[in-house]
Amino acid sequence: MSERRLTHLHLQPDHPRVEAAFWREAEGRRTKCYLCPRFCSVPEGSVGFCGVRGNFGGKMYALSYGRLTACAVDPIEKKPLFHFKPGSHVLSISTAGCSFACQFCQNFEISQRRRVEEGYTGPEEVVDSALELGADGITGTYNEPTTQIEYLLDVMKLARKKGLFTTWVSNGYMTPEAVEALAPHLDAITVDFKGNANVQFYRKYIYVPSPAPIFDAIRELQARKVHVEVTNLAVPVPEGSDLGDVKKIADFLLDVQGEDASFHLLAFHPDYKMLNVPASPPEMLLKMYAIAKEAGIKYVYIGNVGEDKYETTFCPVCSTAVVVRSILGVKKNVLKGSSCPTCGFRLPIVT
Asked: Which architecture, in CATH terms, is 70-311?
């Protein structure tokens, strides 16, 4: 499967050849990538599954380095990070390519494109833009940030020096080597499960053998003191509708994060190659919500439905609505530091 989508390279003549990290030489002038658990073995003149890590003359290069496909300021709640810097804004950046092939991707124009076409933007320009636009942090998002890790690490190191925080929105499909390099420079991450992390769902709709490495990455990121929030896209197909799988994710989060665990359930909307699949029924999302709550998770949210009450953080002790959110960000925040103003309970929210 690792070579399923190998293609010939498509590069602009002025593309700076930035040598990639996380690779080793292999037989026959191949380069073996150790960035994600696909471990692509890439022949000379080709790229790996993600489309943006290529073999030139027996060396692997990060072809999307600095080639931004999108750049925009978003409320951090859109990521969605609900327990990290509520009310702040981030400069969101992306490149082409992805380690997944989600048949329902809403950003398929960039994530599923296996061609690098954009002009070059240096890391300094990104950080300067974030400061000029009044952003509080920088986020790798829209496509899988792991595929552009060399560039993002350079951006993140500069951002930290300028007082900006750093976050990712990721599928979590990364190797221990990638986590080790990333964690010291990352403040917070949203890890997105799809289809309740069901193995058959990942194989059929994402072309991933197993979501198991994602659980390992979350555990390691948490151990390295990165703020982690987990989402689950609720896709109403047989392979993604097993409510027992929701319980497994909830139990995992409680094991890793304890009483601080939060869980975002996201409604599916038809897109890309799955236009024939309807949006997530409200009753499906509510059942998942109830299962996560019954498992013991105090902070469960439902996103993509446009109802503020399911995106509001309530104090688990006295039920005060401490942070009220909408699709546009925070509407009301009555926290005193990280504590409830009514009963004084300290919530697991980084302010």
From this structure: Alpha-Beta Barrel (3.20)
